[in-house]
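hey so i finaly got around to running the thing on Legume lectin domain-containing protein from Ceratodon purpureus. pasting the sequence first so u can double check i didnt mess up the copy paste, my clipboard has been acting weird all day
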Amino acid sequence: MASRNGSVLLCLVAILALLQIASTSAAETPPKGVSIAFPPLDKRFTCSVDPAIGVDTKFICTPGTSPTALVLSNDNDVVSARYQYATPVQLWKRGSKYVASFSAYFTVNFDRSSEFTVRELFSGGGLAFAITPSLSVIGTGQESFGLFPIDEKTGASKNGANTKTVAVELDISRIEPNGFDPQIPHIGLDINSVKSVKTKYLGDPATIIDSKIGVWIEYNALKKTIQVYIHKVKVDQTPKRQNANIAISYTGLDLAKEVKDFSYVGFSSRVPETPNGVYKIYDFKFSTTWVLGSTVN
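ok and heres what it spat out for the 3d tokens, dont ask me to read them lol
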């Protein structure tokens, strides 16, 4: 009888253990990955500017044709603007070990007007692929690509711990000879500051404007690495990943510590004055893949 009771007890213990494992597994279910792309340029994406400038967004973010592209510019002045996916994207799971790796790709052309001959790198300032805590551009100013307000001597965010922004910038105009900014044109990785943690000089400005620049961004959440590749081609050609060169390689980026779990993805820019030129983004792809990390977020 004692042996029988012991067997029953062992069965109960085993069942409870299985239930505990099942419960833990259920708690560790990863979210679904996302896949975002344009074209088409539709209501899934939204254009944002600071209402204080008094310009309708339809004059800042406009659809281009032949070929299809998002065209960024403003008729009268350089302004900050964003074009982002309107729904927040989950990048890490609170109270869980699950985190998202991501990949992004876009093609941009800094298209200078043939009438603008003052300098090769025309007005505006550049473009950044950005992960931000909100869609708002209010109070961000032009010197941070419309990302957040900064100390213009150091590039540090004035939002402190609430900045929650990671960006890959293509800077083609901002010149701070005695400040934080390296020689232009350059590509940089920005983590809650526009004083980039890693930069690469892109060379002769003449090779940057009036070209198609393909940019691939690959983030590995397990290794906490981010790598950025670029390939520049003529306007009538297509950038190819197999021909791209690495521009940025950085280790130590933990998105669970640097951005909100639900964040907005897309582009932020200091858009140029239309008489000088426009920025054209021909396409954009972004996708996430969930992996099980080593620590609880």
